[in-house]
Amino acid sequence: MTAPAPASALPALFVSHGAPNMILHPSAARTFLAGLAADLPRPTAILSVSAHFAAARPTVVADPHPAMIYDFGGFEPELYRMVYPAPGDPELAGRVAEALAAAGLEPAIAARRGYDHGTWVPLKLMYPDADIPVVQLSVEPRRDPRHHWNLGRAIAGLRAEGVLVLASGSLTHNLHEAFTPTGLRPLDAPSPAWVSEFADWVAAKVAAHDVEALLDYRRAAPHAVRNHPTDEHLLPLFVALGAGGEEGLRIHDSRNFAVLAMDAYRFAS
């Protein structure tokens, strides 16, 4: 049975999920995610929008018991033994699809798809008991930020029902720059100016409620293409922006491997 919705709507969140092994090693971002749920009302369900779930049209997962997806290689063996056994919620998945269809967004429903690391890494830190149902919604890398903002606007009403919209990507995501000729940069290496300037531009535009600038980030933001050679890891931010409204706040700011900005945002209008 679904628990009563909180008296006030939950926010929509954007979090940076980092490398899969973030869950194993101490960092500011890991500590932040592990404490994030304490600042939120308990959700009735979670709608996860992961950069690692890509589709050609908005796709909602209606699997009642999603399995695990280990969508990475070369990491510590214990990562491949981790499980996140949270149930799905086919009824909620259907309502998400209905909301998207009503907005003219032509959704599809997937009967089976497991949890990729963009979903299970942050959720395993935030809600380790895995006792809250999770539904997944794809991003569409061939569509622009405005399309993803409209996706968020279509599902915004779910927040009043106690559904936590958790958009999971990376505030910056140039993996090539995370490496030097001798290997991966240290986890705590200092951040270059081209990363910090981009991250601070996003924070300033969110604080100013400048939705149009954010949606045009590839042209307007400093070093946008260098930070996002492709933009699938930032697309979840625009879903959260649409779902939560223009009242946004950066709630975490740190770096991993110098060039991965692990920033997080809370949107709640």
TrEMBL record:
Lineage top rank: taxon: Bacteria
Keywords of this entry: Dioxygenase, Metal-binding, Oxidoreductase, Zinc
InterPro entries referenced in this protein's UniProt entry, alphabetically: Extradiol_dOase_DODA, Xdiol_dOase_suB
GO molecular function: ferrous iron binding; oxidoreductase activity, acting on single donors with incorporation of molecular oxygen, incorporation of two atoms of oxygen; zinc ion binding
Residues annotated as domain Extradiol ring-cleavage dioxygenase class III enzyme subunit B: 40-257
Cofactor needs: Zn(2+)
Signal peptide: none
The keyword Lipid metabolism is assigned to this record: no
SUPFAM superfamilies in the record: LigB-like
Alphabetized Gene3D superfamilies for the sequence: LigB-like (3.40.830.10)
PANTHER family listed in its UniProt record: 4,5-DOPA DIOXYGENASE EXTRADIOL-LIKE PROTEIN
Record-stated family: Belongs to the DODA-type extradiol aromatic ring-opening dioxygenase family.
Stated name of the protein: Dioxygenase
Organism: Siculibacillus lacustris
